[in-house]
Design a protein that fits this description.
- This protein is mainly α.
- The protein is about 65% helix and about 0% strand.
- Helix 1 packs antiparallel against helix 2, helix 1 packs parallel to helix 4 and helix 5 packs antiparallel against helix 11.
- The termini are far apart.
Length: about 350
C-alpha cells in the first residue's frame, strides 16, 4: 500500500510539473501568434478582431493550454492538493523565462531573483510535501465530505462568499482589489475539492467501477461548474479594473492559502507530518510567494547599475563597480589671479585690461 502511494505521488508530481510546462508555453505561443497577426496588419483581438482563429501558432497555444489543464486535473487524482496547487507558480516562471528568449521581454534583476526563488520554494515543497490519507474511492470521499470540520468550513465559505457578492462587492469591489480576489480564492478552495473527487471517480471509472450511477459524482460535477463560473467572472472583473502585476501575486497567495486550508481540513494530511516537514512546507510556500511578488511587482522597473545610488556603486577604496559618470575636469588655463578674492569695496586689476 505504501509503495503504491509513493508511485501515485510521483505520478501526480510529474503531471503537475508537465502541466506547468504546457501552460507556461501556451502563453508564449498565443502571444507570438498575435504578434504575427499585428505585423501583417490584421485587426487585433483587443479591437474585436478574430483573425487569430486562422493563425496556427495561436491554435498551438490553445492546444498546449488544454493539455496542461488536463494534466493539472489528473494530478489532483494522484498527489495531495497541498503539493499540486503551489506548483502552479512554475507556469509563471516558465512563461517569464521563455518570454525573455522568444518575445524579447527582458528580465530585470528582480525577475531573475524571483525565478530563482520560485525554483527553490518549489523544491522545498516537493521534499516536504504531506502524504494525505488514502482516498481511493467515491465512498471514501463521501465519508470525508461528511466530516463536521469540513461541513463547518464549507458553510463558512459559502456564507462569506454570499456576503461578499451581494453586500460588499457592489459597494467596494471597484475600489479594493481584495474583494474580488477573496471571492475567487475561497470559492476556488471548494472547486479544487470537487476536482479531487472527480479525479478519483475517473480513476474508478477506468478501473471498471460504475461511478456514473453514484449521485455524488454528479453533485461534484455541478458544484465544480458553479464554482468555476464564479471564479472566472470575478477574476475577469479584477483583471479589468486593476493592474495585472497587482492581481496575479495577490490571487496566487490567497487562492493557494485557501486550497491548503481546505485540503488540510478535508484530508487531515498535516496530522501525519513531522514538525520539520510542516516548517519546510510553509517555508517553501512563502519562498514561492516572495518569488512571484518579485516577478510581477517590479517587472516594469528598469534596474541597472546606473540607476543605483553612487555610494552603492563604489567598491573598496572608492573603486567604482559600474561605469563612472562623466564629470568635467577643472581648467588649467585659468590665471592664478582669478582665484584671488577682491577686497571689500574694491576690485582686482589684471594686467593692462581697461
Amino acid at each position: 500500500m505504501m509503495e503504491a502511494g509513493r508511485v501515485d505521488f510521483y505520478i501526480g508530481l510529474s503531471l503537475a510539473v508537465s502541466s506547468c510546462l504546457f501552460i507556461g508555453t501556451s502563453f508564449i505561443l498565443k502571444k507570438k501568434g498575435l504578434l504575427r497577426l499585428a505585423s501583417k496588419g490584421s485587426m487585433r483581438a483587443g479591437q474585436g478582431g478574430y483573425a487569430y482563429l486562422k493563425e496556427w501558432l495561436w491554435w498551438a497555444g490553445l492546444i498546449s493550454m488544454a493539455v496542461g489543464e488536463a494534466a493539472n486535473f489528473a494530478a489532483y487524482a494522484f498527489a495531495p492538493a497541498t503539493l499540486v496547487t503551489p506548483l502552479g507558480a512554475l507556469s509563471v516562471l516558465v512563461s517569464a523565462v521563455l518570454s525573455s528568449y522568444f518575445l524579447n521581454e527582458r528580465l530585470n534583476v528582480h525577475g531573475k531573483m524571483g525565478c530563482l526563488l520560485c525554483l527553490l520554494g518549489s523544491t522545498v515543497m516537493v521534499v516536504h510535501a504531506p502524504q494525505e490519507e488514502e482516498v481511493a474511492s467515491l465512498s471514501a470521499m463521501a465519508d470525508k465530505l461528511k466530516d463536521p470540520g469540513f461541513i463547518v468550513f464549507a458553510v463558512c465559505v459559502v456564507g462569506s462568499s454570499l456576503v461578499l457578492i451581494f453586500a460588499v462587492a457592489p459597494r467596494f469591489g471597484q475600489k479594493n482589489v481584495l474583494v474580488y480576489i477573496t471571492i475567487c480564492s475561497i470559492i476556488g478552495s471548494l472547486s479544487v475539492s470537487c476536482v479531487k473527487g472527480l479525479g478519483i471517480a475517473i480513476k474508478e471509472l477506468v478501473a471498471g467501477t460504475a461511478v456514473l450511477r453514484d449521485p455524488l459524482f454528479w453533485c461534484l460535477l455541478v458544484c465544480l461548474a458553479l464554482c468555476v463560473s464564479i471564479q472566472i467572472s470575478y477574476l475577469n472583473k479584477a483583471l479589468d479594473i486593476f493592474n495585472t502585476s497587482i492581481v496575479t501575486p495577490i490571487y496566487y497567495v490567497f487562492f493557494t492559502t485557501s486550497v491548503i486550508a481546505c485540503s488540510a481540513i478535508l484530508f487531515k494530511e498535516w496530522l501525519r507530518m513531522s514538525a520539520g516537514a510542516v516548517v519546510g512546507t510553509i517555508s517553501g510556500f512563502l519562498t514561492i510567494v516572495l518569488g512571484i511578488f518579485l516577478l510581477h511587482a517590479f517587472k516594469d522597473i528598469t534596474f541597472s547599475w546606473e540607476s543605483m545610488p553612487r555610494y552603492l556603486r563604489k567598491g573598496p577604496r572608492g573603486l567604482h563597480w559600474g561605469p563612472r559618470p562623466y564629470a568635467a575636469l577643472p581648467s588649467q588655463d585659468r590665471p592664478a589671479e582669478a582665484n584671488v578674492k577682491p577686497p571689500l569695496g574694491g576690485s582686482v586689476k589684471s594686467g593692462s585690461a581697461p
